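Hi W., the flavin-adenine dinucleotide complex you wanted:
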Amino acid sequence: MRPRIRIVKGIWHEPESVAYLDAETIRRKYLAILEEVINADGYPEVATHDDWLIEQSLGFLSRLSPAQYEFQMLLGVTPKRGDQLVADGHRLRVYVPYGRDWYAYSLRRLRENPEMAQYVARGAISELFAAR
Ligand SMILES: Cc1cc2nc3c(=O)[nH]c(=O)nc-3n(C[C@H](O)[C@H](O)[C@H](O)COP(=O)(O)OP(=O)(O)OC[C@H]3O[C@@H](n4cnc5c(N)ncnc54)[C@H](O)[C@@H]3O)c2cc1C
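Structure:
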């Protein structure tokens, strides 16, 4: 078995009793899990937009062939970094929310983590200026 394991920094706000809250600890644990999945012969799915984490992950993944892992990103988030990964020969899967309830789904996600609204607004504004 080569189980596919998507590794994410959880987006939901959770209490300290069940989640790591410190950014550096989260990054450290992320890489520890990635290493564990690689050592267990799993198929790691590195689902993050954190550039530092992507760079560190590339170090761990360098002993695998590109068919043995993939990166994953949300549609519209850090697309240039995604394009670069593909240009460098890595696989990238893009998560696309679709269907009748896309609006309710998006609102629910923003309600659960309002910080994301800032990211979305910042991203939309920079896209707007880049298009001019
Ligand atoms: C394919 C996929 C599936 C996922 N599934 C889950 C899941 O089931 N449960 C869960 O808890 N988490 C899930 N996540 C993670 C979640 O959506 C966020 O991406 C994550 O919590 C934010 O951390 P980061 O690793 O992207 O890095 P951060 O350091 O938090 O983000 C880096 C940069 O990416 C941008 N960014 C990150 N996320 C978003 C966003 N949602 N909208 C706009 N800009 C953003 C921002 O510019 C930010 O500065 C998933 C992620 C992916 C790619």
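Helices lie at 23-39, 51-61, 79-87, 102-112, 115-131.

W.
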